[in-house]
Write a structure and sequence with these properties.
The chain is mainly α. The chain has 5 helices and no strands. The chain has helices spanning 11-20, 39-42, 62-93, 99-119, 123-142. Helix 3 runs antiparallel to helix 4 (99-119), helix 3 (62-93) packs parallel to helix 5 (123-142) and helix 4 (99-119) runs antiparallel to helix 5.
Length: 144
Amino acid sequence: MSGRPDSDTGPETADSEAAADQDESGDLLDESGDLPYESDALLDESDDPPYESGDLLDESDPLEDARRARWTAVGTGAALTLAGLAAALLRLIRSAPALVPAAYAGGAAVCAAAAVLGSRGRTRRALWLLIAGVMVMALGDQFD
């Protein structure tokens, strides 16, 4: 063995030690062998998050979005069903052609089917059925 025992390591040993401190993706590991958190660099001295609690985050929960879409389809379908049935009953009381209350009742039935589909998660089909139901009601109103 030549050289002093407390000398620096050679270039080939230093490269292998640096390679041992990296994971497969090339990121440097900390002393415990774990990847350092990237968000730690974003935090200030107080360790408070850089956003307020009321701010909107870029992350959206797909389950929450789906749940909101289902409730929207159910609520809209139920409201349009009740409105169509009320209009059909009002048209039955007055003197109107029989086609008018039938169109309102048919549109209400289509909106009720949309509410059922929306509750089962078929929100796109429910949207189209809601549009069709309102169009049937509007067509029935033209005959009045």
